[in-house]
Amino acid sequence: MLSVRVMLDTNLRSYLGDAGMVRTFDAEVTRRSIRVMMAPSTLVEVLGHPKLDVR
C-alpha cells in the first residue's frame, strides 16, 4: 500500500481553521491514513503568532 503524504502551507492551514474544518480534516486524514506534513518554516511562523489561542 502506498503511503500518502500531504504538505500544508500556512494559507491552507489558516483556511481550515477559519472555515471550522479542522476536526473534519483531522478525521478524514486519520480515516484514510494520510500523513500530514508541514514545512519547518510554517511551524516557525505559527509559533511566532502573538495570540496563543490561534496557534
Descriptive tags:
single chain, 3 helices, alpha+beta, 55 residues
Tell me what you see in this structure.
The chain is built from three helices and two strands. It has 55 residues and is an alpha+beta fold. It has one domain. A two-stranded parallel ribbon has the order 1-2. The protein starts with a strand and ends in an 8-residue tail after the last helix. The model has no long low-confidence stretch (mean pLDDT 86).
Distance between the termini: 34 Å
Radius of gyration: 12 Å
Number of DSSP strand runs = 2
Spatial arrangement of strands, main beta sheet? 1-2
Strand-and-helix sequence, N→C?
EHHEH
Largest β sheet strand count, sense and barrel closure: 2 strands, parallel
Outline the low-pLDDT stretches: none
Strand content: 5-15%
Structural class: alpha+beta
Indicate the mean pLDDT.
86
What gross morphology would you assign?
globular
What is the helix fraction of residues, given as a range?
40-55%
Figure out the total of helices. Answer: 3
User: What is the number of domains?
Assistant: 1
Oligomer: single chain
